[in-house]
Amino acid sequence: MRFVQLPMARRLKLFNAGVIDADLAARSNLSKSYPDVLQVGPPLLPLDLYLICPPDTQCTEQRFQDTSVSVYSSRGSKALLDEDGHIFSLKGLATYVDSPRQLLTLFNQRRVDYFVHVVVSQKIEEAPIQRPYQSFFLGSYNLPHHVHKSHNDMVSSLSTDLSRIFSAQ
User: Fold this and answer.
1) pLDDT level of residue 130 (50, 70, 90 thresholds)
2) In whole angstroms, how large is the CA radius of gyration of the chain?
3) What is the mean pLDDT of residues 43-56?
4) What is the pLDDT of residue 72?
5) DSSP, residue by residue, the chain
6) Are the CB atoms for 144 and 44 separated by under 8 Å?
7) CA distances from 21 to 34, 110, 150 (A)
8) Above 70 in pLDDT, residue 125?
9) In this predicted model, what pLDDT tens digit does every residue of 53-112 receive, in sequence order?
10) Which of 16, 59, 100, 160 suits 4 as a labelling partner, its CA being 20 to 30 A distant?
């Protein structure tokens, strides 16, 4: 078994084509857009999304409508917010990157002022935000596992095993 990190668009295209066997954590409606992908078992990672802003500004979802600012987001965060029917229909300028960590680095270096921050379950240590900020809670999400349909025969046993593992924690 090999774990490989890929940009989201490439990963999903390869996954749907069967080149990739499984995805550890992806949005729950993934199989609506990718018919050869099956959801498996309980979610791996609960996560929260926050809008991060400089401390001296209004930090609400209205920033997504403000044409005078750029809001940065990972492609995955945008997909989650879109799935949720969130107000992420931007009127302002949006820039998407593949890595949530990259956004944190850019904010810490003062290269961006507004971004959607992914905060994963408390069990995982997060890289800190190193400059003054304020945050606005956007939503909580559970990211289930997925497998390619060629592994359909394993879905039931994988779901059972994952449920047993997570209930033991």
Assistant:
1) very high
2) 17
3) 85
4) 86
5) -------HHHHHHHHHHTSS-EESS--TTHHHH-TTEEEEEEEEEEEEEEEEE-TTS--SGGGGG-TTSEEEEEHHHHHHHHHTT-S---SSEEEEES-HHHHHHHHHTTS-SEEEEEEE-TTSPPPPP-S--EEEEEEEEEEEEEEEGGGGGGHHHHHHHHHHHHHT-
6) yes
7) 13, 39, 8
8) no
9) 999 998 988 887 787 888 888 877 777 776 665 555 555 556 777 777 888 899 999 999
10) 160
Q: Which two tokens stand for residue 6?
A: 């890929």
Instruction: Answer whether residue 50 shows pLDDT above 80.
Output: yes
C-alpha to C-alpha distances, 4 to 14, 15, 23, 115, 142, nearest whole angstrom: 12, 12, 10, 26, 21
The answer to whether 130 and 108 have CB atoms below 8 angstroms apart is: yes
CA 13 from centroid of its chain's CA atoms: 17
Query: Cα–Cα distance between 58 and 64 in angstroms, integer?
Result: 11
Q: Whose structure tokens read 């593992």?
A: 165
pTM: 0.71
Burial (CB count <10 Å: 0-12, 13-18, 19+), residue 128: exposed
Residue 122 has pLDDT above 60, yes or no: no
